[in-house]
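Fold Annotation — chain and its backbone
Next Lines — sequence and tokenised fold

***
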Amino acid sequence: MSVIERIQSEVDNHPIVLFMKGTAQFPMCGFSSRAVQALKSAGADPVHTVNVLEDPEVRANLPRYSNWPTFPQLFINGELIGGCDITMELFDSGELARIVSETQAQ
């Protein structure tokens, strides 16, 4: 299975997935930590995460797959939502909680 197929599999098999540096329990950067906390506060708990620091192939190829250069990267229902800033904007507006609730109800 190619790295792109592995990324696609993660996105396809988990309604909410956060590609991040570190894990939900031990984030390795502030942006990843803030994104995890926003998701948990919005009701996505547990959060399915992929630690890009443990998989150099995913870390190298995810920006090409998503056309998004930085980490973390949040996907919901197979669609790239964005990084930490967009996740925080959605959280602050209440939209993230609505999206998470709708996704988990499916």
About this structure: The chain has one domain: 3-105. The CA atoms of residues 35 and 65 lie 20 Å apart. The mean pLDDT is 96. The two ends are 28 Å apart (CA to CA).
